[in-house]
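Form 7-S
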Amino acid sequence: MQTRQAVIDALNHVEHKTVPYHMDFTQQALDNLIAYTGDPEIEKKLDCALHYIQYWGWPTELPDRPGYFRDEFGVVWNRTGADKDIGVVDHPLIEDLEDCDYQFPVCDEARLRREYEELVATANGRFTMAGFGFCMFERSWSLMGMENVLMSMVACPEELEAFYDKICDYFCHLVDIALEYNIDGVYFGDDWGQQKGLIMGHAHWRRFIKPRMARLYARVKAKGKYVVQHSCGDCYEILPDLIEIGLDCYQTFQPEIYDIETIKKQYGDRLTFWGGVSTQRCLPYATPEGVQQEARRVMQALRKGGGLIIAPTHSLAFDVPPENIMALVQMFQSQE
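Output:
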């Protein structure tokens, strides 16, 4: 069984023979894997290294609109299309930031605490994290719409900064609650990248996002915990900024975007990378043997000096054949 210490060693850049590994699933992919293996408990038997939950507003299905879910922030998510796990925003709640009376919700703290109590109680020797998805840029565009946020960075930057301060204040409170529990780190989810470069560009990221993430990271670091950041896409130009404000682990590390050997040489002594096995190109299309070959290549490139949690680069989706998932698991487990 993988241990919490194996992940801590990876985060502290201590090299071992066995590299910790992890897998996350969309519900569709997990259902496919259960059907393939005939084992409803298969996910528990994969022996993944990380144990965490994500708060992003607890979307609840609307009784009069099947497939539509409303979260605590009032955002309605349409899951009737291809994305059954998150969905797409049905309609932005804020149309004009300069004439906005939106009020942030009061989080159900009792529910959050129950979840953290269960998280800690079920850690079973794994590295345990409280996670916060849609925590800054994604929260803004889920409320305002992507185009509105990006235009506001130019049209009304002061109002947008004030709005981001409110988002940050909201999540600072939740992070403080999480840090009362016996966890190892905090995971922040917020997509900033596209296939090439940042969605909003470096200058806007540094103005609007970086100072608020720095506040969140500082709370975690002050308690001696690890900071993990998820962002899909190309975040190359802000890796030094993230290191500066205290990031320990970057996820997801996509080989179709990054030259992983070069990034390892540049930042591998200061960042741990979580990911490396492509869910965009490799896992949906390769043979099981090809999946294992690619995973070995990634591991060989990134394992030196520690700093690696080997994993698919995103939650496994419905288009990944179960045969490829099990081939990857076999390769991960055969290290031992």
